């Protein structure tokens, strides 16, 4: 067990906040989703939740934002809980080296996405959730509320509508996967669920809590219940390390060294197994679609604490 008492977390977070404040404005918002394109680049938040439930936070850690692809961790958990290893017949576990919204490997691999975190893989995971829960949307909402301990978690209708209006690539991708027979449900139903999960609105503390089970051997301390087995939690962490930040996963392993999952809303969650879960938020993205200052903050955090899975 790592001795957290040896770290001055408020001081470390304060230093990161100061460094980041000098760089606000860098990066680009996700311009392809209208409602995200309007988020200003003048705010940053960060939260740490220890396995004992203690919270450390700085900046706009209580401001809600669009969680986008971070939700892929939670839907993957729901899908694995429902169908177990059968999931791997329909989606692979390899890093892609291509952007999150790439279609290119789908044709070579006959409709089997490279991993559950690129959009293609998340659409297949969404299909599995739809097929295995009576009311998939309700199941996901319920899951998020229990994991975060916040009963007010919900979807932002404006973002969901905006995604639908600009979702040409996801529409194409879902149809392409369907053409290979790798979606059971109607393309529209899969996309609706996918847009709902992406448009959930949560803050850094909610999100750090929502993945505490991945730091705590599969046990969610927030709701006081087991979510997945210890083994499954290690596997989800492995996928986050190899594919959670898309074609920057190598760089994340190199500079941060922690399993992490990003979203184009500017959030990134990260896990220090057996110690803590974290979330950073800054809406300016780098060219790989990951939060620029979020990534910097996690890099500095890993550097200053010495925490890394390596
Ligand atoms: N909703 C976004 C999309 O489908 C999610 C992508 C992301 O956060 N990386 O393009």
From TrEMBL:
Family: Belongs to the glutaminase family.
One family name in Pfam for this protein: Glutaminase
Entry keyword set: Acetylation, Hydrolase
Reactions catalysed, as given in the entry: L-glutamine + H2O = L-glutamate + NH4(+)
PANTHER family named in the record: GLUTAMINASE
Gene3D superfamilies per the UniProt record, alphabetical: DD-peptidase/beta-lactamase superfamily
Species of the source: Luteimonas notoginsengisoli
Record lineage: Bacteria, Pseudomonadati, Pseudomonadota, Gammaproteobacteria, Lysobacterales
Domain of life, per lineage: Bacteria
Annotated positions binding substrate: 69, 119, 163, 170, 194, 246, 264
Protein name: Glutaminase
Subunit structure: Homotetramer.
Coiled-coil residue spans: none
């Amino acid at each position: 067990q790592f001795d957290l008492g040896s770290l001055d977390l408020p001081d470390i977070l304060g230093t990161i906040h100061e460094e980041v404040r000098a760089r606000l404005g860098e990066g680009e918002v996700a311009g392809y989703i209208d409602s995200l394109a309007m988020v200003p680049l003048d705010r940053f938040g960060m939260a740490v939740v220890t396995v004992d439930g203690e919270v450390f936070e700085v900046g706009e850690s209580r401001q809600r934002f669009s969680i986008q692809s971070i939700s892929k961790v939670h839907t993957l958990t729901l899908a694995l809980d429902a169908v177990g290893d059968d999931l791997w017949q329909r989606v692979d576990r390899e890093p892609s080296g291509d952007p999150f919204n790439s279609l290119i490997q789908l044709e070579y691999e006959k409709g089997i996405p490279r991993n559950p975190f690129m959009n293609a893989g998340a659409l297949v995971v969404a299909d599995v959730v739809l097929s295995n829960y009576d009311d998939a949307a309700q199941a996901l909402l319920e899951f998020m509320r229990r994991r975060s301990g916040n009963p007010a978690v919900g979807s932002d209708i404006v973002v969901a509508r905006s995604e639908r209006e600009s979702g040409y690539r996801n529409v194409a991708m879902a149809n392409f996967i369907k053409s290979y027979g790798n979606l059971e449900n109607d393309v529209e139903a899969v996309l609706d669920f996918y847009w709902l999960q992406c448009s959930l609105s949560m803050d850094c503390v909610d999100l750090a809590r929502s993945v505490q089970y991945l730091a705590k051997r599969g046990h969610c301390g927030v709701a006081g219940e087991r979510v997945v087995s210890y083994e499954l939690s290690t596997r989800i962490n492995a996928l986050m390390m190899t594919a959670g930040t898309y074609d920057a996963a190598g760089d994340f392993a190199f500079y941060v060294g922690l399993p992490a999952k990003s979203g184009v809303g500017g959030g990134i969650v990260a896990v220090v197994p057996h110690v803590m879960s974290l979330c950073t938020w800054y809406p300016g993205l780098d060219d790989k679609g990951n939060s620029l200052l979020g990534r910097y903050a996690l890099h500095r955090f890993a550097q200053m604490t010495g925490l890394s899975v390596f």
